[in-house]
């Protein structure tokens, strides 16, 4: 697993970089996702009981879900926290796609835990994605991924529908990843 942290000029650059969208925090709201973007919502049962909620939250907030899903994660901090930045990479070595993000919100409630991150310049998409684990009154633990995005560059504009398929597959891998970690 990746144990390295961002440092030096790359860390400084991502820390200073502006988000590439305006609707910060919209994936955590109760209202609908903003117009003008592709929307994604996935809800999956992960487990049952407080122990599964805690294991899910630890995996999620320690970047383990992303790593187990096949992304290389180079974060500014080993634990997710507000304003943390990360370089997410997908694909083989020098051909990998870099997807820099900033954590825009962290949820730490008795029955819900998780975070949302937004895209930074250089990310193939422009938008936000949230990852929330929660426990219902029936003790069922669920994992919800919500996102809104649109192409952030020429590559994703050209990819069109294929880019949406990739996004769905990565979301499926997040779910499988969290299930395997719980």
Features:
182 residues, alpha+beta, 7-stranded antiparallel β-sheet, Alpha-D-Glucose-1,6-Bisphosphate, Chain A, domain 4, 5 helices
Describe the structure.
With 182 residues, the chain is α+β, with helices and mostly antiparallel strands. It has a single domain, classed as START domain (Alpha-D-Glucose-1,6-Bisphosphate, Chain A, domain 4). It is 29% helix and 35% strand. It is built from 5 helices and 7 strands; from the N terminus they run H-E-H-H-E-E-E-E-E-E-H-H. It has helices at 8-16, 50-61, 64-68, 154-159, 161-181, and strands at 38-48, 72-75, 85-90, 97-108, 112-119, 125-135, 140-151. The protein has a 7-stranded antiparallel β-sheet, sandwiched between helices. The chain starts with 7 loop residues before the first helix and ends with a helix. The mean pLDDT is 93.
Q: Biggest sheet: strands side by side, in what order?
A: 1-7-6-5-4-3-2
Secondary-structure element order, as H and E? HEHHEEEEEEHH
Please give the largest β-sheet: 7 strands, antiparallel
Number of domains as seen in the coordinates: 1
- CATH topology, anyone? Alpha-D-Glucose-1,6-Bisphosphate, Chain A, domain 4
What would you give as the CATH superfamily? START domain
What is the CA–CA distance across the termini? 17 Å
User: What's the CATH class, please?
Assistant: Alpha Beta
Shape: globular
Radius of gyration: 16 Å
Model regions low in confidence, pLDDT < 50 over at least 5 residues:
none
- Beta-strand percentage? 35-45%
Fraction in helix:
25-40%
CATH architecture: 2-Layer Sandwich
Nearest-integer average pLDDT: 93
DSSP strand tally: 7
The DSSP helix count reads 5
**Helix-strand makeup class:** alpha+beta
């Amino acid at each position: 697993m990746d144990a390295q942290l961002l440092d030096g000029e790359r860390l400084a650059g991502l820390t200073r970089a502006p988000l590439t969208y305006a609707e910060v925090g919209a994936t955590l709201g109760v209202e609908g996702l903003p117009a003008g973007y592709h929307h994604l919502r996935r809800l999956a049962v992960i487990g049952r009981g407080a122990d599964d909620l805690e294991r899910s939250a630890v995996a999620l907030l320690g970047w383990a879900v992303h790593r187990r899903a096949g992304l290389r994660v180079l974060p500014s901090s080993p634990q997710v926290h507000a304003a943390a930045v990360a370089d997410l990479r997908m694909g083989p070595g020098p051909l990998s796609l870099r997807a820099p993000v900033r954590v825009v919100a962290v949820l730490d409630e008795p029955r819900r835990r998780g975070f949302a991150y937004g895209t930074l310049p250089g990310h193939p998409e422009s938008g936000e994605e949230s990852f929330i684990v929660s426990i219902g009154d029936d003790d069922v633990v669920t994992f919800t991924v919500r996102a809104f995005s649109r192409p952030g560059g020429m590559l994703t504009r050209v990819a069109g529908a294929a880019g949406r398929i990739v996004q769905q597959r990565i979301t499926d891998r997040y779910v499988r990843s969290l299930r395997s970690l719980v």
